[in-house]
Amino acid sequence: MVAPAQESPPRPLGLLAELTHRCPLGCPYCSNPLDLDARADELDTATWARVMREAAALGVLQVHLSGGEPGARRDLEHIVAAAREAGLYTNLITAGVGISTARLAALAAAGLDHVQVSIQDSEAASADCIAGYDGAFARKRALAGDVVRLKLPLTVNAVIHRANIERVGAMIDLALALGAGRVEIAHAQYYGWALKNRAALMPAREQVGRAIAVVEAMRETHRGAIVIDSVVPDYYARYPKPCVGGWGRRSLNVTPSGVVLPCHAAATIPGLDFWNVREYALADIWTSSPAFNAFRGTDWMVEPCASCARRSVDFGGCRCQALALTGDARAADPVCHLSPHHAGLAELARSDADAAYVYRRI
Amino acid sequence: MQEPSAPDIAPDARPRLPRGVRLVHNAAQGGWVLLAPERIFRPDAVALAILQRCTGAATFAAIVDDLAVEFTAPRQRIGADVATLLRSLADKKLLEL
Ligand code: SF4
Ligand code: SF4
């Protein structure tokens, strides 16, 4: 048999750099894994600088400095500077707690391009309860003010779930009042800690419908004032999203300890062989690591995806979700109405009862 | 037939990219890209010619004059095209007018 010539993979555009898993907050919707990396296992400054150079050479245009809370790393300024020197667009994704005014100025001087601050709610008491941290809301507001004063572009990110979904409009207005040019309305995705807390987080179907209508209306009324990006919640969609733009097509994710993943939840899939930047160059990992090639393209698919016209559009959706909800990482994402597991998913979305939060802790 | 109306932009406006929006050349990706918060745009030849002039130095009127010469096209049509692009970029927070 003659194997088809192996196409060289497309070049990635984005790198998610999880600089640390340490974080002062404890959001129950956190998508970090339950098994968090310890500080002692974190990559050092020089290794991150090399990762930035290798990423840029590979074609990456933007790096998202994330975590955990990236501000927990003392060398964040050096990592930002290394990324800018390599030619990357640098985006800081922060919880907004623990980055002082002076620190932010140093980050701006190092070449930071954009700051994304998360908010948990539009009301302080509820926001602090969700974050599991008293006073977080006030500190986030202060940081947002510093970002705007430094004339850095600000995005506000709000993860939406049962406790705050009725205030989605108020959160958009808060983002506008804080001076954000952009707001992300992200319905919780159920990985990591969020999956553990799904029963406490999942909103009712009617609430989701109302929230989507509010966001769509505000997109019109706020045109030109603030850009509203929203992700429709998975569990209520007909077709899945192309998770991370397709496995091993657009982006890669480096964990605090240097493991390179096709998406942030990929380590939940058993049996995949992930490579580490301590041992391999990023370009080799991208093109040749078994984990990146496991679900690249469409050859790995089973029915109903294998013969589906949308297979190169959504790539069968999310592998991690397929695994979590069907037990098989190659199955169609059950978000898809063509999946035999789709009906069960709607049931799940409906039947989850109230429960207390399990806060994310290292 | 009716002309589609172009958005109004003051002739003396000096369009510029705000902080956090950068036009860069990337060899590995094969050309010019406009980088912005969570966004990447690949401008076509015309959009690139416009963006390269949005430095905060040239006025809208001067940019239109310049492009009318470069593309040997009627000034009015170029003016409408440039205004449409600049307004849509400004709505997306990718440009300051
Ligand atoms: S989601 Fe919350 S707990 Fe998780 S990293 Fe972000 S701020 Fe920290
Ligand atoms: S069957 Fe598979 S490829 Fe087709 S739409 Fe559903 S998830 Fe996408």
Structure write-up:
The complex is a heterodimer of chains A (362) and B (97). Chain A has 14 helices and 9 strands. Chain A is α/β, with parallel strands linked by helices and 362 residues long. Chain A has a 9-stranded mixed β-sheet. Chain A has helices at 45-58, 76-85, 101-109, 124-131, 136-149, 168-178, 192-196, 198-201, 205-221, 282-288, 290-294, 311-314, 319-326, 342-351, and strands at residues 14-18, 62-66, 89-94, 114-119, 154-160, 182-187, 227-231, 251-254, 260-261. Chain B is an alpha+beta fold and 97 residues long. In chain B, strands 1-2-3 form a 3-stranded antiparallel β-sheet, with no helix packed on it. In chain B, helix 2 (60-70) packs across helix 3 (75-91). The termini of chain B are far apart. The chains are: A alpha/beta (362), B alpha+beta (97). The interface between A and B is medium-sized, with 25 and 19 residues. The structure holds iron/sulfur cluster (SF4) (2 copies).
Query: Strand percentage of chain B, roughly?
Result: 5-15%
The 3D shape of chain A can be described as: globular
CATH superfamily of chain B: Coenzyme PQQ synthesis protein D (PqqD)
User: What does the overall shape of chain B look like?
Assistant: globular
Unreliably modeled segments of chain B? none
What would the CATH topology of chain B be? Answer: Arc Repressor Mutant, subunit A
* Share of residues in helices of chain A: 25-40%
Order of helices and strands of chain B: EEEHHH
Number of strands of chain B: 3
Topology:
The complex is a heterodimer of chains A (362) and B (97).
Chain A lengths: L13 E5 L26 H14 L3 E5 L9 H10 L3 E6 L6 H9 L4 E6 L4 H8 L4 H14 L4 E7 L7 H11 L3 E6 L4 H5 L1 H4 L3 H17 L5 E5 L19 E4 L5 E2 L20 H7 L1 H5 L16 H4 L4 H8 L15 H10 L11
Parallel strand pairs in A: 1-2, 1-8, 2-3, 3-4, 4-5, 5-6, 6-7
Antiparallel strand pairs in A: 8-9
Chain B lengths: L21 E5 L4 E6 L2 E3 L3 H7 L8 H11 L4 H17 L6
Antiparallel strand pairs in B: 1-2, 2-3
Helix pairs in contact in B: 2-3
The complex binds iron/sulfur cluster (2 copies).
